[in-house]
Design a protein that fits this description.
There is one protein chain. The N and C termini lie far apart (68 Å). This protein has two domains: 62 residues, Arc Repressor Mutant, subunit A (Orthogonal Bundle), CATH 1.10.10; 98 residues, no CATH class. The protein is built from seven helices and five strands. The longest helix is centred in the C-terminal third of the chain and has 15 residues. The strands form two sheets. A three-stranded antiparallel beta sheet has the order 1-3-2. A two-stranded antiparallel sheet has the order 4-5.
């Protein structure tokens, strides 16, 4: 039996129970077990949640919340489209203004990554329906109210239009000199 099949069967036998990565690795019997879980979630629509989805789960814990499967619409984005959207958005998150490598707002030991996201999740993968989000915003963690800090101000400036960024630069030059 393939690793994906073993994992599917294990999750289905343990619906609603938290399972840890050590057990899942043992069940799968391969080093790429996490990829098989993503395939179950993305390709087959299994509702497998992690600590990124629920606060009560720790890293390395998973739970299949239901046997109901979600329909999956293919949202494959080719490399050319991905690059075009990243360039169009200035390699900056559309929501918070962070760039790849900035500290994660809730875990400073981690760095954010940039993702291409669909504005309308059920819409097509065309430029007008695509945007750049950092890993924090893409996982829905950014809806927390964080204190106003220098990084938040810089994120606001990064998110601003080029015209507004130049106005900020001019103001800083007037205030502090060249």
């Amino acid at each position: 039996m393939a690793a994906r099949d073993k994992l599917r069967a294990y999750f289905e036998q343990n619906v609603g129970k938290i399972v840890n990565k050590n057990k899942l690795a043992k069940v799968a019997g391969i080093s790429e077990w996490a990829r098989r879980i993503r395939e179950l979630r993305d390709d087959e629509g299994l509702q497998i949640l992690t600590h990124n989805d629920r606060d009560d789960l720790k890293p390395g814990e998973y739970i299949l919340i239901s046997l109901d499967r979600r329909p999956r619409i293919s949202h494959k984005i080719d490399a050319q489209t991905r690059t075009r959207i990243l360039i169009r958005n200035g390699f900056t998150c559309n929501d918070c203004g962070r760039t790849a490598g900035d500290p994660d707002p809730l875990n400073p030991d981690r760095k954010v990554r940039l993702h291409i996201d669909h504005v309308d999740p059920n819409g097509p993968s065309i430029d007008s329906n695509l945007r750049v989000l950092c890993s924090a915003c893409n996982k829905g963690r950014w809806n927390l109210t964080l204190p106003r800090t220098t990084i938040n101000i810089l994120a606001s400036v990064r998110r601003a239009s080029r015209e507004d960024q130049l106005a900020v630069l001019d103001w800083l030059k007037r205030k502090y000199g060249p």
